[in-house]
């Protein structure tokens, strides 16, 4: 006998909140059909991290800090000598291993400028192809262009294996 009133009380406790949430469905939701308007450009995608790259018109985007950039200042430019195995699009090298701190190809060793480690997190250090360019603005630095990604970073030549 006690079970019936308890069951009835429990049913009412559950049903009352459900009925209180029911409203006249013929009335539109207060916010329905109210969309914001904008007179400005709305981008198709959210923001993304800028990575220095070369665009379709061969413009080097992100290489505009100039010779006085404190992140690329070296007290001893070319401390380990000059890279001489070739520059530009006619000299494509395949990475053979390493990390941003030290990578190599064909026995030549380099490291990425520490300030630019953030731009190489998706480089494949054991097989990406790169092209080395001389940097006209920053003594002691070269530019390594990743062919697969179309991005580039400043690198320092560390010398040949066995030197």
Describe this structure in words.
- This protein has a domain at 91-163.
- The protein has one helix at 3-21, and strands at 53-54, 60-61, 92-94, 97-99, 102-105, 108-112, 129-134, 142-146, 151-160.
- With 163 residues, it is α+β, with helices and mostly antiparallel strands.
- It has a 7-stranded antiparallel β-sheet, with no helix packed on it. The chain has a two-stranded antiparallel sheet with strand order 1-2.
- The model has no long low-confidence stretch (mean pLDDT 79).
- The radius of gyration is 31 Å and the shape is globular.
- It contains 1 helix and 9 strands.
Low-confidence stretches: none
Please report the total strand number as a whole number: 9
Describe the strand arrangement of the main beta sheet, using strand numbers: 3-7-8-9-6-5-4
Gap between N and C termini:
96 Å
Relative strand content: 15-25%
Please give the largest β-sheet: 7 strands, antiparallel
In one word, what is the shape? Answer: globular
Helix percentage range: 10-25%
Number of helices: 1
Class inferred from helices and paired strands: alpha+beta
Mean pLDDT: 79
Taken in chain order, the helices and strands follow as: HEEEEEEEEE
Radius of gyration of CA atoms, rounded to a whole number: 31 Å
């Amino acid at each position: 006998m006690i079970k019936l009133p308890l069951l009835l009380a429990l049913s009412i406790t559950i049903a009352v909140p459900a009925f209180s949430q029911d409203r006249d469905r013929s009335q539109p939701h207060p916010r329905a059909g109210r969309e914001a308007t904008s007179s400005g450009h709305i981008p198709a995608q959210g923001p993304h991290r800028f990575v220095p790259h070369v665009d379709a018109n061969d413009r080097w985007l992100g290489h505009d800090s100039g010779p006085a950039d404190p992140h690329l200042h070296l007290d001893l430019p070319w401390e380990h000598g000059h890279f001489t195995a070739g520059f530009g699009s006619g000299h494509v090298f395949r990475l053979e291993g390493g990390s941003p701190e030290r990578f190599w190809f064909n026995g030549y060793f380099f490291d990425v400028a520490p300030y630019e480690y953030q731009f190489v997190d998706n480089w494949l250090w054991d097989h990406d192809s790169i092209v080395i360019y001389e940097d006209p603005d920053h003594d002691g630095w070269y530019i390594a262009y990743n062919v697969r990604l179309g991005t580039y970073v400043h690198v320092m030549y560390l010398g040949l294996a066995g030197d």
